[in-house]
Amino acid sequence: MDASFKVFARATLLTVILAVGGPAVASELAATASKPISICHGYGCNYRTMIVLGSGDYIRFRSILHAGAGSARAERSAISKAVRYFDQRIFRATGVRDLPQSEFGASRIRGQMDCVDESTNTHTLLVYLAERKLLTFHKVEDNASRGLFVDGRYPHWTAVISDRGGTQWVVDSWYAAMGGAPDIFPLSQWKERGVLKSGALD
């Protein structure tokens, strides 16, 4: 089939869809369209693996988020479940199960993630959900950091969302094993944590 005819056929189909179903149908088609997403791993995004979230993934995310549509608190619980599902998709793409936190010397090991990788991937997921209007009570903020070594804490990054009242919440999956529930609590509390105690971070 000639390439120019394919373009014409797609344009004609879109015109018909808009005429019959209107903008709502076109918006739903855009939401379910495949979305290539770059996943960071290897510490500090040393490696990137492309995964494609298709219509099946969108339907799964929509089901998860709709179950949390009753309140901001319920939506944060749903976001936690969405992150856990996203971790499963990452595992299928990399073939490596990421360990909790970060091991010294694990830099440049494919599939293993430090807080930069984790926060970047979570932020990417949150943007994906927001673009598809699956977040009702929250909006996506820039990632946040804490710790400067000199204050007794390791530098650490997290993804952040804010609710309608302006409270910012972390979505920090670094502490959990791959597929585990991320920490979701106020950013102000998260900023105060991270002190080294007996060889571990609180």
Largest sheet: 3 strands, antiparallel
Proportion of beta-strand residues: 15-25%
- Helical fraction: 40-55%
- SSE pattern, N- to C-terminal: HEEHHHEEEHEE
Poorly predicted spans: none
How many separate structural domains? Answer: 1
Distance between the termini: 61 Å
The SS-based structural class is alpha+beta
Count of helix runs: 5
Please tell me the overall pLDDT: 86
- Radius of gyration from the alpha-carbon trace, in angstroms: 19 Å
Overall shape: it is globular
Please provide the count of β strands.
7
Strand neighbour order, sheet with most strands: 3-4-5
Describe the structure.
The protein is α+β, with helices and mostly antiparallel strands. It has one domain (33-201). The chain is 44% helix and 19% strand. A hairpin with a 4-residue loop joins β4 and β5. α2 (55-66) packs antiparallel against α3. The chain starts with a helix and ends with a strand. The relative contact order is 0.13. The model has no long low-confidence stretch (mean pLDDT 86).
